[in-house]
Every structure is written in structure tokens, then in C-alpha cells.
Write a structure and sequence with these properties.
mainly alpha, two-stranded antiparallel ribbon, 68% helix
Length: 605
């Protein structure tokens, strides 16, 4: 291949989001007004508290005393190193998701359907429940733990190594499905003609991966990667419940250490640790942002093949194939539905069984008496509904479930409305390109902010109303809003321009009608943001623990209290975990088709 053909196989994703040739002052004003609600919430709920935390951390004698004390603390250094390890694990999880998506391409529809369900259900399971499940599976006592019971010579897991194995497997079990789902649909939309032509011109597998596959997958895969990396940067409840107290100091992360020692560190020290945690998370976001910026220069022109051909060569527009309009989740998510060879079937069947097994353990354990759970493994009998009776005794957990549902529904509403308006402003409205880029960059950075960086100022500002459902819902909504804007931005960019620019009777209402049409065209993505917001709030322990403790009016807080006596409360925890998982799992199964199309809508061109 000659030097003139160096860029022959570069492929740029297509986003038809061209602004009108001329933008009136009224159009730009309207665009800023669409962005205003989200911007106001972000400034008041994220930037101002973050600034207050930074100022608090600098109130020492020379402004850096708190940082020196924190950095010189051996436990803090260990926790920050552990944070980096979790971020590395997140990259491994995303790579595993890509590998499983490639595996699923050649499977038959039935086996592929089982694999998709098994991999995606853990995604809506709370980290709290995941920690409970894997702590049960890896219990050191061979009479209780499944793994030790299966070993020929049962051993007691001790030390830092085994707990990292348990927590790492729990995290991979929970988040691999998200990466798998995005890559699975993305691979189905690959421009096969480009791959064939690239192969015909001598491009090897790595060249095709870099020049065709990666650019086609990245726009939506970047958001999925950001979600997984954010989960790794904010890991909290998985460690809090999944690791026994004796080994928790060895696996502490900065966010968990902040919660344990904030009173010991003092205001300045706690603020400094929160700032360091924020810097770690933002550094991850900047890596994703650096990749995402590569997509922006191509945001206003279509696929071109070849994008840079030899001198005098023609330029022909190409577009990737779209997901069939009649696709239903999870039946037709990938091309190549023909029969696969038996090794691929065996591997897919084994993966399906491995991912379904933790749910089997949780369900069987929940249908045993509390005494049986405390003294023997799930395979030893003693089945009944005693654990559910203990979990629901007094009605406290049922009331907490209802309060958590109210909080989740209100937070979802508070996220969707401003996120739709902001995403429209960043794609189809008349905002200047620099403003769009700056706002998108800010959304990427703010999406990974840890709650610990905001907890103290929010607690002081909201005061007595902080424990109420509206106040907690607002805090959740502000934390989730940047991510919602990013998801909708990707989807709105794929809406055809003719659907936005249809003439209307009045210029005064043109912008509002265009916003409505874009939201309707991208309805799956809007539904996805609403469902995702509800599920994340439903499963969240961190915000309630930081801002609403010691009140136990939220379901995750009730489970956290029971987990403090893990051995004697294992049956109750299993029953509560089933009830906590049932709601988001049912929501996923009912709305699965919309969620798949909404989460991956930005892949389609």
C-alpha cells in the first residue's frame, strides 16, 4: 500500500446535524433558552458545591496543608491506588463485552436471546445485591460457600488476593452486559461493504479494526465506556457489603475511605480527599473526551468513501446499515443469525450459565428459612418463605421500597425534561459550534463527579429538608443530568434533518415544534434515559448514605443495616435482594426493545 493510500480506509461516522445556513438572533436566543434549565441545575447543584469543596480544602495555613496531610496518609495512598486498579478493571470489562459481542454474531436466535438476557439482567442489579450474592458464593466456610464446597480440598479464602477476586468478578458480572449490548448492536451496524473493500485492498484485521470498526463503534461505545468507568470510579457499596470487615481496609477506595474517616480528617482534610477523588474521576473523563473530540469535526458531513483518496480520486458517500425497524429485543440484534459451529455454541452456553448462576443462588437462598441459610448452603434444603417473612416483618422494608420508587420516578422526570431540551440545543438548535463543543465537554467531565465532592456543601445548604423525597430526588437528578444529556445528544444527532426542519404555521413556535419532533423521533432514547435514571436511583446507596443517614426510609439503606450482621441476616438479605432486583428486572424485560434502540440509537447513521 502506497503512502498516497495511507488514509484510504479511514471512516468517519455520519451525523446529519447541520444548522441552517443563516441563524437569526431569535434562533440563537431560543437555543440558549433550551440550554438554560439544564445549565441552571448543573451550576447550582454541581459547580457551586464543588467550588465550595475546593475552597474548604484550601483554608489551611498556606492553602496546601490539607493536601499534604492527606497524601502523606498511607491509607489514603492505598485507597487511591485501589481506585486506579478499579479503572483498569473497567477497561477489561469493556474488552470482555466486545469479545462476547463478537462471539454472539454467529449464534442462532435462541441461544443469542438467552445470552443477551443473561448478560443484561445483572446490569440493572444493584451493586449492594451483587456484593451480597458473591459474598455468599465465595463464603470461606465450605458448608456455606458454593466455590469452597465444589473444591476437592476446600480452602479458606484469606488475604487481599481472594477478596479482590470476589469483588472483581462481581463488578465484571454486573457491568459486562452493558458493554456487550452496545458492541453487539454496533457490530450489527458495521459497514460491511467498507470491510470487504478494505480487505480487498490488503488491509489486515488490525488495520480494519482501527480504520473501520473502531470509528463506527465509538460514538455510542464512548458513552457506554463512560458509564462503566464512572461505576468503577464511584465503586462504593459493592466493597462495603461484599468485603468482610476484617479485609476492608485493604480494598478501600477513596470514596469509601472518605465516608469512614471524614470526621477524623476534619473539614479541610475531607474536602482535600474529595478533590483528589474528583481529579481521578475527571482524568478518566478527559481520556474519553479526547476520543470523543475526534468525532466532532465530522459532525456536519456524511460518511465518505474514501475520506482521503489518492489525488484525483472520487469521493463517494456511504452510510452504515441501520438496525431493522422491526427489530425486537432481544430477538434480532446482530447480523449473521445462521448456525454457529459447536465450539462457539459451547462457549456461549457456558457464559450464559455462569451469568445466570448468581441469580439462581440468590433466588434459592431467599426461599430458605433464616436458620438454614445461616448454617448451611443453598443445596442443603430447608426451603420455605421464612426469609421473606423476616424481610417484610413490620412493613419497614415495604415502606422503604415505596419511598425508593417515589424518589426514582421523581428523579427520572427531573432528568428527562431538561436533558431533552439541552440535547436539542446541542444538536439541532442554532447554538454556535464552540458553545456546543464546550457544553458537551462539560457534560463528559460532570458526568463522573463523585457525590463525596458535593455532600458536605449540599448537606449544609439543604439542611433540614435534605431527608425528604423531593430533596434527595433533586440531588440524584443533578448528578444524572450530564449523563442523560450525553445519551440524548448521541440519539438526537441521528435524527434526519428533514424531520426537524418541516415548515410550521408560526415562526414563534417553530423551535418548540422542532424540539417535539426530535424527541418523538428519538423516543426510544428518551425512554432509555428515564428508565436508566429510575434504575440508578432505585439501586443507589451512596447518596442516601451520605445525605440521609441514619434514616432508613430507603430500601438500600435498609439492606445496608441488615448487612452489618451478614451471617445471621443472610436469608433476610437474599429476600430483600430478590425484591430489589425484581422491579428493575421487570422494567428491563417489558421495555427491553426500546432500551436497546435508545441506548444504541447514536450508532445508526
Amino acid at each position: 500500500m502506497s503512502r498516497d493510500d495511507a488514509f484510504l480506509f479511514e471512516a468517519a461516522p455520519y451525523h446529519d446535524m447541520r444548522a441552517p445556513a443563516k441563524s437569526s438572533g431569535r434562533g440563537r436566543l431560543e437555543a440558549w433558552l433550551f440550554l438554560l434549565p439544564a445549565a441552571g441545575l448543573v451550576v447550582a447543584g454541581l459547580l457551586v458545591p464543588l467550588a465550595a469543596t475546593v475552597v474548604t480544602s484550601l483554608t489551611g495555613k498556606d492553602g496546601l496543608d490539607a493536601y499534604r496531610d492527606v497524601v502523606n496518609d498511607a491509607q489514603v495512598r492505598t485507597a487511591l491506588r485501589n481506585n486506579v486498579d478499579w479503572l483498569g478493571l473497567a477497561l477489561v470489562v469493556c474488552a470482555l463485552g466486545l469479545g462476547l459481542a463478537w462471539l454472539a454474531r454467529g449464534l442462532g436466535p435462541r441461544l443469542r436471546r438467552l445470552l443477551v438476557v443473561a448478560l443484561t439482567l445483572p446490569t440493572v442489579t444493584s451493586p449492594l445485591t451483587a456484593g451480597v450474592i458473591f459474598r455468599m458464593i465465595f463464603a470461606p466456610d465450605p458448608g456455606l460457600g458454593t466455590v469452597n464446597a465444589l473444591l476437592p480440598e476446600p480452602v479458606l479464602f484469606t488475604g487481599r488476593g481472594w477478596i479482590w477476586l470476589v469483588l472483581g468478578l462481581a463488578f465484571a458480572w454486573q457491568w459486562t452486559g452493558l458493554a456487550f449490548l452496545v458492541f453487539h448492536v454496533g457490530l450489527a451496524n458495521l459497514p460491511e461493504d467498507l470491510l470487504r473493500v478494505a480487505g480487498a485492498f490488503g488491509a489486515g484485521p488490525l488495520r480494519r479494526l482501527r480504520a473501520v470498526t473502531a470509528p463506527a463503534l465509538f460514538p455510542t461505545a464512548a458513552v457506554a465506556l463512560l458509564i462503566v468507568l464512572t461505576a468503577a470510579a464511584r465503586v462504593f457499596d459493592l466493597i462495603l457489603v461484599g468485603a468482610p470487615g476484617s479485609v476492608q481496609p485493604e480494598v478501600d477506595v477513596a470514596g469509601l475511605l472518605w465516608w469512614r474517616r471524614r470526621t477524623v480528617l476534619g473539614d479541610e482534610g475531607a474536602a482535600a480527599l474529595a478533590v483528589l477523588l474528583t481529579v481521578t474521576a475527571v482524568a478518566v473523563a478527559l481520556v474519553v473526551l479526547g476520543r470523543l473530540r475526534q468525532d466532532w469535526p465530522h459532525a456536519e458531513r456524511p460518511w465518505r468513501w474514501p475520506p482521503q483518496s489518492a489525488p484525483g480520486g472520487p469521493r463517494r458517500p456511504r452510510r452504515a446499515a441501520a438496525v431493522p425497524a422491526d427489530a425486537r429485543w432481544p430477538r434480532r440484534l446482530a447480523a449473521g443469525a445462521g448456525d454457529a459451529r459447536w465450539p462457539r455454541r459451547v462457549v456461549a452456553g457456558a457464559v450464559t450459565g455462569l451469568w445466570a448462576f448468581p441469580f439462581v443462588v440468590l433466588l434459592l437462598t431467599s426461599f430458605r428459612s433464616p436458620d438454614a441459610v445461616a448454617t448451611s448452603g443453598w443445596w442443603a434444603g430447608g426451603y420455605g418463605t421464612g426469609s421473606y417473612g423476616e424481610a417484610l416483618d413490620g412493613g419497614f422494608f415495604a415502606d422503604a421500597l415505596w419511598a425508593t420508587a417515589q424518589r426514582g420516578l421523581l428523579a427520572a422526570l427531573l432528568v428527562v425534561v431538561p436533558a431533552v431540551m439541552a440535547a436539542y440545543a446541542l444538536t439541532h438548535a442554532a447554538l454556535p459550534r464552540r458553545a456546543r463543543r464546550a457544553a458537551t465537554a462539560a457534560a463528559v467531565v460532570l458526568a463522573v463527579l463523585p457525590p463525596q465532592a458535593l455532600a458536605a456543601p449540599l448537606g449544609w445548604a439543604l439542611g433540614g429538608v435534605l431527608g425528604s423525597t423531593p430533596a434527595l430526588s433533586l440531588v440524584h437528578a443533578v448528578l444524572l443530568l450530564p449523563l442523560g444529556v450525553l445519551l440524548l445528544r448521541n440519539a438526537f444527532m441521528s435524527v434526519p434533518r428533514p424531520a426537524v426542519t418541516r415548515p410550521v404555521a408560526s415562526r414563534r413556535t417553530a423551535g418548540r415544534w422542532a424540539l417535539t419532533r426530535v424527541a418523538v423521533e428519538a423516543a426510544p432514547a428518551v425512554a432509555t434515559v428515564a428508565v436508566l435514571s429510575f434504575v440508578l436511583v432505585w439501586n443507589d446507596l451512596v447518596v442516601s448514605l451520605l445525605l440521609n443517614w441514619p434514616a432508613a426510609d430507603q430500601a438500600p439503606l435498609t439492606m445496608r443495616q441488615a448487612s452489618r450482621y451478614f451471617t445471621t441476616s443472610a436469608g433476610e438479605l437474599a429476600a430483600q435482594g430478590v425484591l430489589m432486583t425484581a422491579v428493575p428486572a421487570a422494567l428491563l424485560l417489558v421495555t427491553g426493545g426500546w432500551l436497546v434502540r435508545g441506548l444504541t440509537q447514536g450508532v445508526r447513521r
